[in-house]
Amino acid sequence: MAEVEDKLKDYEIKREGEAEILLKKSNAVFFNPVQVHNRDMSIAVLRTFVAKRKEEHEALLNKRNKSHQKNKQSEPSIQNGHDASTSIHDEMNVVCENGPNQAEDEIDDMPKEVTKTPSWKVTRELKPPLVLEALAASGLRSLRYAREVDGLGKVIALDNDKSSVESCKQNIKFNGAFAASKVEVHLTDARVYMLMHPKEFDVVDLDPYGSPSIFLDSAVQAVADGGLLMCTATDMAVLCGTNGEVCYSKYGSYPTKGKYCHEMALRILLASIESHANRYKRYIVPVLSVFMDFYVRVFVRVFTSASEIKNTPLKLSYIYQCVGCDSFHLQCLGRTVSKNNSVKHAPAIGPAVPQECSDCGKKFNVGGPIWSAPIHDQDWVVSTLADVKSMKDRYPAYNKITSVLTTVSEELHDIPLFFSLHNIAGTVKCTSPSLVMFRSAVLNAGYQISSTHVNPLGVKSDAPWDVIWDIMRCWVKNHPIKEQARDLPGSVILSKPPKLEANFSRAVAALSKAQAKKVQRFLPNPERHWGPKVRAGRKITSKHVSLLGPEAINGALNGAICQQDGNGTASDKPAPEPEGIKDVENEPSSKRQKISDDEPASEP
Ligand SMILES: C[S@@+](CC[C@H](N)C(=O)[O-])C[C@H]1O[C@@H](n2cnc3c(N)ncnc32)[C@H](O)[C@@H]1O
Ligand SMILES: [Zn+2]
């Protein structure tokens, strides 16, 4: 007994949601408490997945039943010695076993959302979804999935680190018989395991240290047709363009620098997953893509279709980012040409921009390709938000995830990237109009505008850049600025007369729904010294002070790390500072930066 008590002294109990884990007080196994946002959001999306999968299956069964009834009316009930009622079952299996294209052909009179999703075997019984947590560490996430998401099948947890697997085994026992009957752990390299289990998992979760790039190729193969891949990337410095070449080597895309960098990070990750999927005649459909705290997390469904992958170039774009002003332009990689009732794919016609920016006369940096199709499915977002609201007590990070889902639900889904109102005011060196006035001017000019979950000052709009700059020209006419050097980008922009007379009077839709309802949209940081953590097993030294905070460092150096230890990025470098409330409160509304020909418009 004394021995057990002695052993327990080395551990502390962490509770999150309905799971409890025993955590060693040394830095032996990864645990980052602020990732509760990530785990809660994943649970919310998993619940939606379970519900949608059931709906889709029922829709298919109904469809099958209806067509069977039609056949029954026109044919005798016993065909070729088969009882018709048993043949539905067989026929359904055949549909999917013959390949997804055939499945799609056979159900082509169904609504689009339904036809693009049903690829699992259409048997009467829908098996509970099988989940793989490829990089599990303490097993906390797997345990939460198993305990909290109704209707899941087994959850398989993997890790290639012995201490993590030991800890995971211990935690499975610690969570009782139900958890033990559902969660299984293996000591293995996740890449090998995923390659050995093609299309076996309805859900695959990747939550690596830093970049997921080395796991993507095997992960896209392990997901069942219609299944869900959930993937985190915490290497924000790489994805945001601190070192573009590294990003290219990991993800196959060149980042450009702009205020939109965190959304661009999401779109680079999506483009990379799609590219891996395409190698196996598969493609993705994003359902939710979020930038939270210090990382990006995407939720995508994976399907197989040799014909659909021809559309991939239509979902990808290069970016031209002006080095002088905030203007950026997208160049899609492909296009379709319709001829005699048939649609052909062709390369896009470019370039989308002249050599010099038509707004300020400077040159462009070229980035991408990024995913330029929608990054969320509005129906999934709305269902997930409603579901979360209906079970508030079951989400420890309720406030955070509802604020993110609310802002996501308000985004213009077909407008890639965004600009910052403070930045454009900075470029022309004026005091910024209020967000409501600016939104009104855009709406009054006949264009759409929305906020973005990524940045409280970010603005998404389908207004072309000459309209945006015309609005700023009109604003400056009424709010004159000091004389500036003539060759500055802002001076060049202001030297042209506006073609449009901006109307700043308040438009009805100028407040976002969240603002109107006073829903808090951007929450303060979760705790002091929050962010990525040091990798498990790594010795904590004073150089980690910026990651963990001085208190934790003192504790660690004295051999008593508590919850500040646990996980980190591949490089242990802090991610670029996320833009939260700080942006709104601390940024001066007028000029913040100056730009030269080779300096990008803004830093991540
Ligand atoms: C960031 S932690 C995972 C955290 C966990 N998902 C959570 O929510 O608490 C990453 C884990 O991946 C494991 N790992 C790294 N490379 C791996 C590989 N090739 N195969 C399996 N596990 C790996 C590490 O040992 C570490 O425990
Ligand atoms: Zn420009």
From TrEMBL:
What Enzyme Commission number(s) appear in the record? 2.1.1.216
Report the record's Gene Ontology biological process terms.
Answer: tRNA N2-guanine methylation
Q: Residues annotated as region Disordered?
A: 60-85, 563-604
Query: What's the name of the protein?
Result: tRNA (guanine(26)-N(2))-dimethyltransferase
S-adenosyl-L-methionine as UniProt keyword: yes
Reaction(s) catalyzed by this protein?
guanosine(26) in tRNA + 2 S-adenosyl-L-methionine = N(2)-dimethylguanosine(26) in tRNA + 2 S-adenosyl-L-homocysteine + 2 H(+)
UniProt cross-references to InterPro entries, sorted A to Z:
SAM-dependent_MTases_sf (IPR029063), Trm1 (IPR002905), tRNA_met_Trm1_C (IPR042296)
Q: Which EC class is this protein assigned?
A: transferase
MF terms (GO), sorted A to Z: metal ion binding; tRNA (guanine(26)-N2)-dimethyltransferase activity; tRNA binding
Q: Could you name the Gene Ontology cellular component terms for this entry?
A: nucleus
Please provide the record's keywords in A-Z order: Metal-binding, Methyltransferase, RNA-binding, S-adenosyl-L-methionine, Transferase, tRNA processing, tRNA-binding, Zinc
Q: Composition bias, kind Polar residues: at what positions?
A: 74-85
Signal peptide coordinates: none
